[in-house]
Design a protein that fits this description.
mainly alpha; Methane Monooxygenase Hydroxylase, Chain G, domain 1; elongated
Length: 140
């Protein structure tokens, strides 16, 4: 793989991740709605779709890190050394995609935490109802 091919692959991966993070946001919103309505089948379906999407994004990230390491000659803390190897429009697009990706990652992390809190609260309520409140569902 040439240097140009590696830089092109990095840029393509960034753009693909931005698209997938938009889809992830929609899935996280769908997961939240399903949890609010106690729709366990929908929660499971959305969870599987989130897992598949996360796997694809993780694979692209691993590829991007490997390509960046080969290009720069060492693991980089930030993408800046890779961006420095790009010229003109490609560099501007990569930097813009990276900033957008960072925004989406932060937003999806917050949505995931929101969903986790809701599911944990629901679990705790059910645990209390079924375990702690003896007699709640006892015959009258």
């Amino acid at each position: 793989m040439t240097r140009k091919d590696a830089l092109d692959a990095i840029l393509a991966g960034l753009v693909a991740d931005v698209v997938d993070y938009r889809a992830l946001r929609e899935l996280l919103d769908a997961q939240f709605e399903a949890a609010l309505h106690h729709d366990s089948a929908r929660i499971a379906d959305v969870g599987e779709r989130i897992t598949a999407l996360a796997s694809r994004m993780h694979a692209r990230r691993a590829e991007r890190v490997g390509l960046a390491t080969r290009l720069v000659g060492r693991p980089a803390e930030t993408p800046d050394p890779v961006f420095a190897l790009m010229a003109g429009p490609a560099r501007a697009r990569a930097e813009s995609s990276w900033r957008e990706l960072e925004r989406h990652v932060s937003e999806c992390k917050a949505l995931n935490e929101r969903n986790c809190r809701l599911l944990m609260e629901q679990h705790e309520i059910m645990r209390r109802v079924l375990d702690s409140e003896v007699g709640t569902y006892a015959p009258a």
